[in-house]
Amino acid sequence: MTGVELLALAASTSLLAGWRLYLVTFVTGWAMRLGWINLPDKLVALDVLANPWVLVISGAAALFEFFADKIAFIDSLWDGINSAIRPLGGALLALAIVDPGDPVWQVAAFLAGGGAAFVAHAGKAGARAMVNASPEPFSNIAVSAGEDVATAGLLALAIANPIAAALIALILVLLSLWLILAARRMVGRLLNRTPA
Known about the structure:
The chain is mainly α. The protein has one domain (3-181). It has 6 helices and no strands. The chain is globular, with a radius of gyration of 17 Å. The termini are far apart.
């Protein structure tokens, strides 16, 4: 992979970590183990994702998250717990992908990766808070399944064509920002209602 492709891969994986950190870690590690992601020799530190223990732990967490995300109150609790974990995971994924010999790139990747993961997580959590307020369970399940498909599809694209995935990731960051603002407006309207 070229330097531009590695940056695009870092941007995409860190953004997706804001939605599904454990799935992203598992699939990225599995792709490395199968040789689908060929990293330059100087980036062998990222091979830690292909470690069997990391694969087992991230795979088990991804499986738990898959089911927990479909139940409204558990989903909200899970998003709350992961409010610090997902942005940090996105930052570490981005940090692991860039050139370890250049501290400037490391700091920039850590900050950008953490920021992208935080914005994606905040957008997801805000949107899901609105959906979870619905009394019926089907909208929550449909939105969660859509997130699963979008994450898996964009991650597959990031592995096959990192630059195209980074462009889509940029659009998703903008969408996440819009969702954060929409959730904020909705909460403001709910709090400002006057009783009849």
